[in-house]
Amino acid sequence: MLLGRHTGRNNVFLLDCSFLPSYTTKHEYREAFALFDKRGTGQVPRESLGEILRSLGQNPTQAEVAELEKTVGATFNYDEFLTVLNRPDGWKPAGTADEFIKGFQVFDKAGNGFIGAGELRYVLTQLGEKMTDEEVDELLKGFPVQDGQINYHSFVRSILSQ
Asked: Which pTM value belongs to this model?
């Protein structure tokens, strides 16, 4: 978005404001904050910070959330939330399906696009951003397992489309 202003006879001063959140974005931020402000006090518990960020499409790691939680008190208000959300170093993208598939290929010893269900559970609960067994159960619920194997291409595409 460019804002313009005449600065003289035929001169126009242009200011690039594309970095500013739009009205729609601000409205989404306010709505998300309100959803987590369950008591209507204008305060959200620190433990909800990661969840509220993810609800707005951000992708903080658990370590990033832990660091961000240190910057707010036991609860935080909307202005403090905006400060966290609009942090100067930004947010890293979630990653593409191809990037995740390449990561799973390391565990695909047969090179056939499948990984053992037990090995997938191990990867998800023990490596990187560790998930709980309950989270993995929920993630795998209803996903087809063929002879103890999961097609990780389909798995990744299914998860990213949710």
From this structure: 0.51
